[in-house]
Amino acid sequence: MTWTLLLEQFLNGFQLGVVLFLMAAGLTLVFGIMDMVNLAHGSLYMIGALLCATFTDWTGSFILGVLLALPAVLAVGIAVEVVALRTLYRRDHLDQVLATFGLILFFNELCRIIWGPEGMAIPLPGWLDGSIEILPGMPYPTYRLLVIAVGLAVAAALYWLVVRTRTGMLIRAGASNRTMVGALGVNIGLLFTLIFGLGAALAGLAGMMAAPIVQANIGMGESILIPAFVVIVVGGIGSIRGAFIAALLVGLIDTMGRSFLDLLLGTVMSVTAAETAAPALSAMAIYILMAVVLFFRPQGLFPPQGRR
Amino acid sequence: MTFGKLATGLAAALALAALPAQAASVKIGFVTTLTTPAGVIGKDMQDAFNLALEDIGGRMGGLDVEVIYEDDGFKPEIGKQKTDKLVQKDNVDFVAGYIWSNVLLASQKSVLDAGKFLISANAGPSQLAGKQCHENFFATSWQNDQTPMAMGEVLNQRGVKSLYVIAPNYAAGKNMVAGVERSFRGEIVGKDLTKWPGQLDFSAELAKARASKADGVFIFYPGKAGGAFMKQYQQAGLNGQIPLYSVFTVDSLSLPLFQEGKLEGVMGSFMTQFWAPDLDVPQNRKFVEGFRKKYGRYPSFYAAQSYDAMFLIKSAVDAVNGDLTDADGMRAAMEKADFPSVRGPFKFGNNHFPIQNFYLREVVADADGNWTTATRGVVYRDHQDPYAKDCKM
Fold first, then answer.
1. ipTM of the complex
2. What is the number of other CB atoms lying within 10 angstroms of the CB of residue B336?
3. Using CA atoms, how far apart are residues A265 and B317, in angstroms rounded to an integer?
4. How far are the Cα atoms of B152, B154, B164, B186, B233 from residue B158, in angstroms, in the given order?
5. Interval B250-277: pLDDT, tens
6. Closest Cα of chain A to B307: distance in Å?
7. Most buried by CB count within 10 Å: which residue of A263, B144, B193, B214?
8. Per the CB < 8 Å rule, is B232 touching A119?
9. What is the pTM of this model?
10. Residue A215 touches partner B, C-beta closer than 8 Å
11. Closest to B191 (Cβ–Cβ): which among A1, A16, A275?
12. Which of B195, B208, B227 is opposite residue A215, by nearest beta carbon?
């Protein structure tokens, strides 16, 4: 093991964390403010990726593809909220889980009809498709650096929105005590439509960022949805800051587990046993983290003010 | 009610009850993955099976053929449920298909315990080739270890001294790793088994592979994961650094996507396989031409194996002249492997897995510019899998 490998794995974990944050930000706002469990959040991730693939195909440019897909997925999110989710806010969590699970099936089938089962690959422009040497002897994929940059920029913009603006004040107030916010005469319905649209756009952006790496697939949202839920539970439901820190934590733990657990286990058991145990254990690592956090801090690491 | 009416009523009831017993058709259940991103594999198998049905005129042994397709959703438990349904409710005579070794392992008991025939058109887990071999189980594909064993041989010939191995953590992934380890004479400097299915981002594994400074990287990633892996390999700048050797990753299903995604690094890469679209065998020419004409694309090896499965079943039903109660007769006919195969002559080993050639193939562009593979040599001739000796049959 060398320092460059450690640094590279750190960057890999950071990049995974950033994508998880984009996913978790919208999820935690919706869950935290309107107390709505939205399993179909992953569908918006998938739709973002597929729309971006289509627009990239039409325009021949990945950047244009992203710029066109963002408002499109925002529109899809708002449409979903208005048509389907609005009626579910007053129902209990189980109804919401059931209905949004139905939405997952619906969107998977719809996307299969539109895009076919094989999904789409997104070609990147040449200057993004290779790697650059960030340290001597350590090349790193250029595209993953872009993902990190985009993620951090979005995190900064969200921080500004939530901490410095009036909308942000209402979001924070809603996460702490939504009944009071409603009683103060704020149009909660409109606020929530906007928040949901924002969350959808973020999920879609996460999908667009992931698609050139893993390709745009039917059902791709499901595999990232569960880690995203782990992130918001660890971070504290409704907290953007918590989601950011927890996403990086989960991304790093997952990547470091995959990278070094077999070496670590190899020091205490036979190499063959370590080779079999390490993948299983590293797949569990983030859930172990969640269990530990829930044990010591049931509200998560950084719960919103009013909910401590 | 008069006696006459009662008698006609009874006769009618009896006739109705007797209907299902008179097998008017051969019923084949086909389990594959039709949803999830892996559905593209299942569709290729289904297309080939339908083409084969068309090519035999929809009949075998004087009976009509009815095929029931079921989707395993990429999950062993669903595959087993669907298999149970085919065996118990539909009462099929043959169950064929199965892409995934873990799905086949979960489902095989339901079919074999019911005394039906099971024909794997892809999965070749070591268990069913060795200790758990069964008289009613046949494979028209290969045993999982064989193709990577052939690749290990190629690596030896090319002077590869150290190898980094990356494969998914499930039955077939483990077999593939065992296969290449069996024949590769150099050193395996690192090994990663990744979560399956679900993990599509290989950043951590690729960083480790680079740090290992191995002479080659060996992978097995069927379906979508293969495309994601190749893309990331290129993005990480590993293409020029460490040659990539794969089995069941680059095929007719993934190549159009690679071409669309401009993955030039795939061109000229090598893989081993028991079959190739350009194999010069009459049945293969008929299959590949028919498939391209009907569906407008190259068939994959999954399709080739499914096409063979239909002809294997036909040879059995023809041999007993449609008497589906004669299981011994059908089994004996299948053991002879006396059917036109897309891979030319092959025979079954004692464990009902094929004894066949394995070829080296290279990714090339065809006359129309479509990416495909071309045969570059024979690695193994008439190769039998290493588990056959454990099969007491």
1. 0.88
2. 12
3. 54
4. 10, 6, 16, 11, 21
5. 888 888 888 887 788 888 788 999 998 8
6. 21
7. B144
8. no
9. 0.85
10. yes
11. A275
12. B227
